[in-house]
Amino acid sequence: MSDTRPLQDETIFALSSAPGRAGVSVLRLSGESAGRALRALTGRPLPTPRVASLRAIRDSAGDIIDKPLLLWFPAPKSFTGEDCAEIHVHGSVAILESVAGRLTELGLRQARPGEFTRRAVEHGKMDLTEAEGLADLIDARTEGQRVQALSNMGGALRDIYEGWQSLILDALAQIEGEIDFADEADVPDALSHAAYPFLSKAYDGMQAALAEAARGRAVRDGLQVAIIGVPNAGKSTLLNALIGRDVAITSPQAGTTRDIVEAGAVIAGLPVTFSDTAGLRESEDAIEAEGVRRARARAEDAHLVVHVVRGSARPSLAADMVFENIESSSPGRSGSHITGNALTGAGVDLLGAEIERQILAKYAGLESAALTRIRHVECISSACQSVDASREKLGSEPELASEDLRKALKNIEELAGRSNMEQVFDRIFSSFCIGK
After folding, report:
1. At what angle do helices 374-393 and 196-221 cross, to 10 degrees?
2. Does this model's pTM top 0.90?
3. 156, 249, 380, 392: most buried by Cβ count inside 10 Å?
4. What CATH superfamily classification does 12-111 receive?
Protein backbone atom coordinates (compact mmCIF):
# COMPACT_ATOMS: atom_id res chain seq x y z
CA MET A 1 0.00 0.00 0.00
CA SER A 2 1.40 3.40 -0.99
CA ASP A 3 2.21 6.12 1.57
CA THR A 4 -0.13 9.06 0.90
CA ARG A 5 0.55 11.16 4.00
CA PRO A 6 1.18 14.87 3.23
CA LEU A 7 4.84 15.80 3.06
CA GLN A 8 5.77 18.57 5.50
CA ASP A 9 9.32 19.46 4.45
CA GLU A 10 10.47 21.84 1.71
CA THR A 11 10.45 19.32 -1.12
CA ILE A 12 9.92 21.18 -4.39
CA PHE A 13 8.87 20.37 -7.94
CA ALA A 14 8.72 22.21 -11.24
CA LEU A 15 8.47 21.71 -14.97
CA SER A 16 12.07 21.89 -16.17
CA SER A 17 11.36 21.58 -19.89
CA ALA A 18 9.64 24.20 -22.04
CA PRO A 19 5.96 24.77 -21.21
CA GLY A 20 3.17 23.92 -23.62
CA ARG A 21 2.34 21.00 -25.87
CA ALA A 22 5.36 18.73 -26.52
CA GLY A 23 6.34 15.15 -27.20
CA VAL A 24 7.89 14.82 -23.74
CA SER A 25 7.86 17.13 -20.72
CA VAL A 26 10.14 16.77 -17.69
CA LEU A 27 9.09 17.40 -14.11
CA ARG A 28 11.87 17.68 -11.55
CA LEU A 29 11.59 16.98 -7.79
CA SER A 30 14.14 17.82 -5.10
CA GLY A 31 14.08 17.49 -1.33
CA GLU A 32 13.89 15.13 1.59
CA SER A 33 10.57 13.60 0.53
CA ALA A 34 11.20 13.29 -3.22
CA GLY A 35 11.53 9.51 -2.84
CA ARG A 36 8.35 9.14 -0.81
CA ALA A 37 6.49 11.24 -3.37
CA LEU A 38 7.71 8.95 -6.14
CA ARG A 39 6.57 5.88 -4.23
CA ALA A 40 3.17 7.51 -3.63
CA LEU A 41 2.76 8.24 -7.33
CA THR A 42 3.63 4.73 -8.47
CA GLY A 43 2.68 2.55 -5.50
CA ARG A 44 5.98 0.73 -6.02
CA PRO A 45 9.50 0.79 -4.55
CA LEU A 46 11.95 3.36 -5.84
CA PRO A 47 13.64 2.61 -9.17
CA THR A 48 17.31 1.70 -9.38
CA PRO A 49 19.30 4.96 -8.99
CA ARG A 50 20.13 6.70 -12.28
CA VAL A 51 18.40 4.02 -14.38
CA ALA A 52 15.31 5.01 -16.38
CA SER A 53 12.21 3.00 -15.46
CA LEU A 54 8.84 2.96 -17.24
CA ARG A 55 6.06 3.01 -14.64
CA ALA A 56 2.46 4.14 -14.36
CA ILE A 57 1.70 7.06 -12.06
CA ARG A 58 -1.72 7.41 -10.48
CA ASP A 59 -3.95 10.04 -8.95
CA SER A 60 -5.37 9.87 -5.44
CA ALA A 61 -8.24 7.64 -6.64
CA GLY A 62 -5.82 5.13 -8.13
CA ASP A 63 -6.55 6.02 -11.75
CA ILE A 64 -3.61 6.15 -14.15
CA ILE A 65 -2.46 9.66 -15.09
CA ASP A 66 0.30 8.59 -17.49
CA LYS A 67 3.02 5.98 -18.02
CA PRO A 68 6.22 8.06 -17.91
CA LEU A 69 9.91 7.33 -17.59
CA LEU A 70 11.15 7.86 -14.03
CA LEU A 71 14.67 8.64 -12.86
CA TRP A 72 15.77 8.51 -9.23
CA PHE A 73 18.88 10.37 -7.96
CA PRO A 74 19.48 9.79 -4.23
CA ALA A 75 21.55 12.35 -2.31
CA PRO A 76 24.28 13.40 -2.52
CA LYS A 77 24.79 12.26 -6.12
CA SER A 78 22.25 14.59 -7.68
CA PHE A 79 22.13 18.03 -9.24
CA THR A 80 21.06 19.75 -6.01
CA GLY A 81 22.84 17.43 -3.59
CA GLU A 82 19.42 16.41 -2.21
CA ASP A 83 17.23 13.44 -3.10
CA CYS A 84 15.99 14.20 -6.61
CA ALA A 85 13.69 12.63 -9.17
CA GLU A 86 12.65 13.29 -12.74
CA ILE A 87 9.32 12.36 -14.27
CA HIS A 88 9.34 12.29 -18.10
CA VAL A 89 5.65 12.44 -19.02
CA HIS A 90 3.97 12.89 -22.38
CA GLY A 91 3.83 16.62 -23.03
CA SER A 92 0.11 17.17 -22.64
CA VAL A 93 -1.08 20.19 -20.69
CA ALA A 94 -3.75 18.01 -19.08
CA ILE A 95 -1.16 15.46 -17.92
CA LEU A 96 1.11 18.15 -16.52
CA GLU A 97 -1.74 19.76 -14.59
CA SER A 98 -2.83 16.40 -13.22
CA VAL A 99 0.69 15.44 -12.06
CA ALA A 100 1.29 18.89 -10.57
CA GLY A 101 -2.01 18.67 -8.72
CA ARG A 102 -1.11 15.25 -7.34
CA LEU A 103 2.31 16.46 -6.18
CA THR A 104 0.69 19.41 -4.46
CA GLU A 105 -1.73 17.05 -2.71
CA LEU A 106 1.29 15.11 -1.46
CA GLY A 107 2.67 18.27 0.14
CA LEU A 108 5.29 19.35 -2.38
CA ARG A 109 5.36 22.97 -3.45
CA GLN A 110 6.14 24.66 -6.74
CA ALA A 111 9.78 25.69 -6.99
CA ARG A 112 10.69 29.35 -7.22
CA PRO A 113 12.83 30.64 -10.12
CA GLY A 114 16.33 29.26 -9.85
CA GLU A 115 15.60 27.30 -6.68
CA PHE A 116 17.07 24.01 -7.90
CA THR A 117 20.35 25.70 -8.83
CA ARG A 118 20.33 27.70 -5.60
CA ARG A 119 20.06 24.48 -3.62
CA ALA A 120 22.95 23.06 -5.65
CA VAL A 121 25.07 26.06 -4.61
CA GLU A 122 23.99 25.81 -0.98
CA HIS A 123 24.88 22.10 -0.91
CA GLY A 124 28.31 22.69 -2.44
CA LYS A 125 27.57 21.05 -5.81
CA MET A 126 28.73 24.20 -7.60
CA ASP A 127 29.80 27.71 -6.66
CA LEU A 128 27.93 30.88 -7.57
CA THR A 129 30.05 31.62 -10.64
CA GLU A 130 29.30 28.15 -12.02
CA ALA A 131 25.59 28.71 -11.36
CA GLU A 132 25.77 32.00 -13.25
CA GLY A 133 27.50 30.18 -16.09
CA LEU A 134 24.60 27.72 -16.16
CA ALA A 135 22.10 30.58 -16.41
CA ASP A 136 24.12 32.15 -19.21
CA LEU A 137 24.26 28.80 -21.04
CA ILE A 138 20.48 28.54 -20.97
CA ASP A 139 20.21 32.09 -22.31
CA ALA A 140 23.00 31.73 -24.92
CA ARG A 141 21.92 32.80 -28.41
CA THR A 142 25.21 32.50 -30.27
CA GLU A 143 28.22 30.20 -30.44
CA GLY A 144 30.46 32.70 -28.64
CA GLN A 145 28.01 33.01 -25.77
CA ARG A 146 27.66 29.24 -25.55
CA VAL A 147 31.42 28.73 -25.30
CA GLN A 148 31.80 31.47 -22.70
CA ALA A 149 28.94 30.19 -20.55
CA LEU A 150 30.14 26.60 -20.76
CA SER A 151 33.60 27.73 -19.64
CA ASN A 152 32.32 29.44 -16.50
CA MET A 153 29.83 26.65 -15.80
CA GLY A 154 32.76 24.25 -15.94
CA GLY A 155 34.63 26.17 -13.24
CA ALA A 156 36.98 28.38 -15.28
CA LEU A 157 36.46 31.39 -13.03
CA ARG A 158 36.59 29.21 -9.92
CA ASP A 159 40.01 27.90 -10.95
CA ILE A 160 41.26 31.46 -11.41
CA TYR A 161 39.99 32.93 -8.16
CA GLU A 162 41.19 29.90 -6.19
CA GLY A 163 44.67 30.66 -7.53
CA TRP A 164 44.42 34.24 -6.27
CA GLN A 165 43.06 32.97 -2.98
CA SER A 166 46.01 30.63 -2.55
CA LEU A 167 48.52 33.42 -3.21
CA ILE A 168 46.83 35.69 -0.68
CA LEU A 169 46.82 32.93 1.93
CA ASP A 170 50.52 32.31 1.33
CA ALA A 171 51.20 36.01 1.82
CA LEU A 172 49.03 36.13 4.91
CA ALA A 173 50.99 33.25 6.44
CA GLN A 174 54.21 35.20 5.97
CA ILE A 175 52.78 38.33 7.59
CA GLU A 176 51.21 36.45 10.48
CA GLY A 177 54.57 34.77 11.12
CA GLU A 178 56.16 38.13 11.81
CA ILE A 179 53.23 39.32 13.95
CA ASP A 180 52.91 36.16 16.06
CA PHE A 181 56.61 35.39 16.51
CA ALA A 182 58.19 38.83 16.44
CA ASP A 183 60.24 38.07 19.58
CA GLU A 184 61.54 34.74 18.35
CA ALA A 185 65.18 34.84 17.34
CA ASP A 186 64.71 32.41 14.46
CA VAL A 187 61.91 34.46 12.84
CA PRO A 188 63.30 37.32 10.70
CA ASP A 189 61.94 40.79 11.44
CA ALA A 190 61.29 41.32 7.78
CA LEU A 191 59.39 38.08 7.26
CA SER A 192 56.39 40.03 5.95
CA HIS A 193 58.52 41.23 3.03
CA ALA A 194 58.47 37.63 1.79
CA ALA A 195 54.75 38.19 1.23
CA TYR A 196 55.37 40.81 -1.45
CA PRO A 197 55.96 38.43 -4.40
CA PHE A 198 52.77 36.50 -3.59
CA LEU A 199 50.74 39.72 -3.41
CA SER A 200 52.22 41.12 -6.59
CA LYS A 201 51.37 37.96 -8.52
CA ALA A 202 47.79 38.03 -7.21
CA TYR A 203 47.47 41.75 -7.94
CA ASP A 204 48.79 41.40 -11.50
CA GLY A 205 46.44 38.51 -12.17
CA MET A 206 43.42 40.44 -10.90
CA GLN A 207 44.38 43.51 -12.92
CA ALA A 208 44.67 41.44 -16.08
CA ALA A 209 41.24 39.89 -15.49
CA LEU A 210 39.71 43.30 -14.82
CA ALA A 211 41.25 44.66 -18.04
CA GLU A 212 39.44 41.96 -20.02
CA ALA A 213 36.16 42.25 -18.11
CA ALA A 214 34.42 44.84 -20.29
CA ARG A 215 35.11 42.86 -23.45
CA GLY A 216 34.13 39.63 -21.73
CA ARG A 217 30.81 41.18 -20.75
CA ALA A 218 30.34 42.31 -24.35
CA VAL A 219 30.46 38.66 -25.42
CA ARG A 220 27.90 37.74 -22.76
CA ASP A 221 25.54 40.70 -23.28
CA GLY A 222 26.09 41.32 -27.00
CA LEU A 223 27.69 44.14 -28.97
CA GLN A 224 26.11 47.47 -29.84
CA VAL A 225 26.76 49.14 -33.22
CA ALA A 226 25.33 52.66 -33.50
CA ILE A 227 24.62 54.27 -36.87
CA ILE A 228 24.83 58.06 -36.59
CA GLY A 229 24.96 61.05 -38.92
CA VAL A 230 23.14 64.17 -40.06
CA PRO A 231 19.50 63.97 -41.21
CA ASN A 232 18.92 62.39 -44.63
CA ALA A 233 22.43 60.92 -44.76
CA GLY A 234 20.93 57.50 -45.39
CA LYS A 235 21.25 55.88 -41.97
CA SER A 236 17.95 54.02 -42.13
CA THR A 237 18.67 52.85 -45.68
CA LEU A 238 22.04 51.58 -44.50
CA LEU A 239 20.51 49.72 -41.55
CA ASN A 240 18.05 47.96 -43.88
CA ALA A 241 20.90 47.06 -46.24
CA LEU A 242 23.12 45.68 -43.47
CA ILE A 243 20.32 43.60 -41.94
CA GLY A 244 18.88 42.49 -45.27
CA ARG A 245 15.28 43.47 -44.54
CA ASP A 246 13.20 46.61 -44.04
CA VAL A 247 13.29 47.33 -40.33
CA ALA A 248 13.47 51.14 -40.50
CA ILE A 249 11.25 53.59 -42.35
CA THR A 250 13.08 55.48 -45.11
CA SER A 251 11.97 58.80 -46.56
CA PRO A 252 13.47 61.84 -48.35
CA GLN A 253 11.99 63.96 -45.56
CA ALA A 254 14.59 64.92 -42.97
CA GLY A 255 13.92 63.83 -39.40
CA THR A 256 11.94 60.68 -40.22
CA THR A 257 13.77 58.70 -37.52
CA ARG A 258 13.23 60.25 -34.10
CA ASP A 259 13.61 57.33 -31.74
CA ILE A 260 16.16 54.52 -31.86
CA VAL A 261 15.32 51.62 -34.19
CA GLU A 262 17.13 48.38 -33.37
CA ALA A 263 17.77 45.22 -35.35
CA GLY A 264 19.78 42.17 -34.35
CA ALA A 265 22.31 40.06 -36.23
CA VAL A 266 25.00 37.48 -35.49
CA ILE A 267 28.51 38.46 -36.60
CA ALA A 268 31.62 36.38 -35.93
CA GLY A 269 29.54 34.15 -33.66
CA LEU A 270 28.50 37.04 -31.40
CA PRO A 271 25.14 38.81 -31.01
CA VAL A 272 25.18 42.30 -32.49
CA THR A 273 22.47 44.95 -32.23
CA PHE A 274 22.48 47.69 -34.87
CA SER A 275 20.85 50.98 -33.86
CA ASP A 276 19.49 53.49 -36.35
CA THR A 277 19.38 56.88 -34.66
CA ALA A 278 17.89 60.33 -35.16
CA GLY A 279 19.79 62.73 -37.44
CA LEU A 280 22.28 64.90 -35.57
CA ARG A 281 21.33 68.56 -35.78
CA GLU A 282 20.16 71.41 -33.59
CA SER A 283 16.38 71.46 -33.35
CA GLU A 284 13.78 73.50 -31.49
CA ASP A 285 11.32 70.61 -31.78
CA ALA A 286 11.28 68.97 -28.34
CA ILE A 287 10.69 65.45 -29.68
CA GLU A 288 13.44 65.67 -32.30
CA ALA A 289 15.84 67.21 -29.77
CA GLU A 290 15.22 64.27 -27.44
CA GLY A 291 15.90 61.91 -30.35
CA VAL A 292 19.22 63.64 -31.00
CA ARG A 293 20.13 63.37 -27.31
CA ARG A 294 19.39 59.65 -27.37
CA ALA A 295 21.40 59.23 -30.57
CA ARG A 296 24.47 60.83 -28.98
CA ALA A 297 24.07 58.72 -25.82
CA ARG A 298 23.76 55.51 -27.83
CA ALA A 299 26.90 56.39 -29.82
CA GLU A 300 28.77 57.06 -26.58
CA ASP A 301 27.83 53.65 -25.16
CA ALA A 302 28.25 51.64 -28.37
CA HIS A 303 31.09 49.21 -28.97
CA LEU A 304 31.32 50.38 -32.59
CA VAL A 305 29.98 53.47 -34.33
CA VAL A 306 29.20 53.81 -38.03
CA HIS A 307 29.22 57.52 -38.90
CA VAL A 308 27.30 58.08 -42.14
CA VAL A 309 28.36 61.19 -44.04
CA ARG A 310 26.29 62.47 -46.97
CA GLY A 311 28.66 62.44 -49.90
CA SER A 312 26.52 64.01 -52.62
CA ALA A 313 26.00 67.69 -53.25
CA ARG A 314 22.37 66.81 -53.96
CA PRO A 315 20.71 66.05 -50.57
CA SER A 316 17.86 64.22 -52.27
CA LEU A 317 20.26 61.37 -53.07
CA ALA A 318 20.16 60.23 -49.47
CA ALA A 319 21.99 56.98 -50.09
CA ASP A 320 25.04 58.54 -51.77
CA MET A 321 27.33 58.64 -48.76
CA VAL A 322 30.62 57.86 -47.11
CA PHE A 323 30.67 55.16 -44.44
CA GLU A 324 33.02 56.14 -41.66
CA ASN A 325 33.45 53.21 -39.31
CA ILE A 326 34.63 54.54 -35.96
CA GLU A 327 35.59 52.23 -33.14
CA SER A 328 34.14 54.11 -30.18
CA SER A 329 36.37 52.51 -27.56
CA SER A 330 39.70 53.31 -29.22
CA PRO A 331 41.75 56.43 -28.42
CA GLY A 332 41.18 59.18 -30.95
CA ARG A 333 38.11 57.42 -32.34
CA SER A 334 39.87 56.68 -35.61
CA GLY A 335 38.44 54.27 -38.10
CA SER A 336 37.95 53.09 -41.67
CA HIS A 337 36.46 55.18 -44.48
CA ILE A 338 34.33 53.30 -46.97
CA THR A 339 32.45 54.93 -49.84
CA GLY A 340 29.24 53.36 -51.05
CA ASN A 341 25.56 53.61 -51.86
CA ALA A 342 23.10 51.76 -49.65
CA LEU A 343 20.33 51.90 -52.27
CA THR A 344 22.44 50.09 -54.84
CA GLY A 345 24.32 48.04 -52.29
CA ALA A 346 27.70 49.40 -53.28
CA GLY A 347 30.10 49.36 -50.34
CA VAL A 348 27.67 47.66 -47.97
CA ASP A 349 29.50 44.34 -48.12
CA LEU A 350 32.80 46.14 -47.51
CA LEU A 351 31.35 47.87 -44.48
CA GLY A 352 29.93 44.59 -43.17
CA ALA A 353 33.33 42.95 -43.62
CA GLU A 354 35.04 45.83 -41.79
CA ILE A 355 32.63 45.59 -38.88
CA GLU A 356 33.27 41.84 -38.69
CA ARG A 357 37.04 42.42 -38.83
CA GLN A 358 36.92 44.85 -35.92
CA ILE A 359 34.70 42.53 -33.89
CA LEU A 360 37.09 39.64 -34.49
CA ALA A 361 40.11 41.80 -33.63
CA LYS A 362 38.66 43.05 -30.37
CA TYR A 363 36.36 40.30 -29.13
CA ALA A 364 37.32 36.96 -30.70
CA GLY A 365 38.88 34.53 -28.25
CA LEU A 366 37.32 36.25 -25.24
CA GLU A 367 34.75 33.52 -24.71
CA SER A 368 36.89 32.35 -21.80
CA ALA A 369 37.20 35.80 -20.20
CA ALA A 370 36.67 35.19 -16.52
CA LEU A 371 34.76 38.24 -15.28
CA THR A 372 31.52 38.44 -17.25
CA ARG A 373 29.20 40.24 -14.81
CA ILE A 374 29.26 43.54 -12.96
CA ARG A 375 29.12 41.57 -9.71
CA HIS A 376 32.34 39.79 -10.64
CA VAL A 377 34.07 43.07 -11.39
CA GLU A 378 32.93 44.66 -8.14
CA CYS A 379 34.20 41.75 -6.03
CA ILE A 380 37.59 41.51 -7.73
CA SER A 381 38.07 45.29 -7.90
CA SER A 382 37.61 45.46 -4.13
CA ALA A 383 39.92 42.49 -3.59
CA CYS A 384 42.55 44.02 -5.86
CA GLN A 385 42.44 47.33 -3.97
CA SER A 386 42.86 45.53 -0.66
CA VAL A 387 45.83 43.54 -1.94
CA ASP A 388 47.46 46.73 -3.20
CA ALA A 389 46.83 48.47 0.14
CA SER A 390 48.38 45.50 1.94
CA ARG A 391 51.54 45.74 -0.16
CA GLU A 392 51.96 49.37 0.84
CA LYS A 393 51.79 48.51 4.56
CA LEU A 394 54.04 45.44 4.64
CA GLY A 395 57.13 47.19 5.97
CA SER A 396 55.54 49.52 8.48
CA GLU A 397 52.15 48.16 9.57
CA PRO A 398 52.00 44.37 9.18
CA GLU A 399 48.88 44.12 11.37
CA LEU A 400 46.98 46.46 9.02
CA ALA A 401 48.41 44.66 5.99
CA SER A 402 47.04 41.44 7.41
CA GLU A 403 43.60 42.98 7.87
CA ASP A 404 43.59 44.20 4.25
CA LEU A 405 44.23 40.65 3.06
CA ARG A 406 41.35 39.34 5.12
CA LYS A 407 39.14 41.87 3.34
CA ALA A 408 40.44 40.62 -0.01
CA LEU A 409 39.66 37.03 0.95
CA LYS A 410 36.16 38.06 1.98
CA ASN A 411 35.64 39.67 -1.44
CA ILE A 412 36.66 36.42 -3.13
CA GLU A 413 34.31 34.49 -0.85
CA GLU A 414 31.52 36.79 -2.00
CA LEU A 415 32.44 36.10 -5.62
CA ALA A 416 32.12 32.37 -4.94
CA GLY A 417 28.87 32.81 -3.02
CA ARG A 418 30.31 31.38 0.19
CA SER A 419 29.60 34.28 2.55
CA ASN A 420 26.32 35.60 3.96
CA MET A 421 24.74 36.71 0.69
CA GLU A 422 21.01 36.14 1.04
CA GLN A 423 20.08 39.34 -0.79
CA VAL A 424 22.60 38.66 -3.55
CA PHE A 425 21.24 35.12 -3.94
CA ASP A 426 17.69 36.46 -4.14
CA ARG A 427 18.66 38.90 -6.89
CA ILE A 428 20.70 36.43 -8.93
CA PHE A 429 18.40 33.40 -8.82
CA SER A 430 15.24 35.44 -9.42
CA SER A 431 16.46 35.84 -13.02
CA PHE A 432 16.62 32.05 -13.58
CA CYS A 433 13.85 30.18 -15.31
CA ILE A 434 11.53 28.09 -13.13
CA GLY A 435 12.65 24.46 -13.09
CA LYS A 436 16.31 25.40 -13.05
Report:
1. 160
2. no
3. 380
4. Probable tRNA modification gtpase trme; domain 1 (3.30.1360.120)
